[in-house]
Amino acid sequence: MNNVSSAEDKAKTKVVEVKNIALAVPISWKEEKPSSRLRLTQFSIPATDGDEEGAELTVFSFGRSSVDDNLKRWIGQFGSEDRQSKVTSGTAKLGKYVLVEVSGTYNKPIGPPIAGKTQPTKNSRMLALILDVPDKGTYYLKMTGSDKTVASQAQAFRNSFGAEADKEKEYKLAD
Fold it and tell me: Which residues pair with 103 in a beta bridge?
């Protein structure tokens, strides 16, 4: 992870309005036309040095749904044989959130979601977030890609909605 100072980091970001919220994202994240009508926006994130593929960040907002069900679904998108996951919660500038970080073999969706087809992709990582923004709704942010690239973007991901990793607490999923 790079050690860029806060002032330098802010100089390298842009504010993107997404529905009722503003995200501060690195200028290297390229906003793209959403590939699905369910997505509010999506970003292409360049690969970290040594990686062949970059990552993707998608943003959704479709009302409040079960936090634990979403977290379990996201964790379940990774094969159980090499999966590692960590779930935390916190309060950011935009609101309260729950964040899951999962690594291992990602069953990457291919084709239309209704087809349910996936391709096992080793050495992958996901950062997925449920963010409750007072008076503005619930937002779901999901970054997926190679383990190294997503891990290198974890701080920028948190910065985008005003979170601080050192203030997060462990979140226990219900059985």
Answer: 84, 125
Beta carbons within 10 angstroms of residue 9's beta carbon: 16
d(Cα 71, Cα 164) in Å, to the nearest integer? 20
Domain edges within the chain:
6-170
Which sign, positive or negative, has the C-alpha torsion 105, 109, 110, 115?
positive
Answering whether pTM is above 0.85, one says: yes
pLDDT tens-digit readout, 93-137: 999 999 999 999 999 988 777 788 999 999 999 999 999 999 999
Q: Find how far residue 148's CA is from the centre of its chain.
A: 14
Class of domain 6-170: alpha beta
Six-digit token string for 71: 């977290």
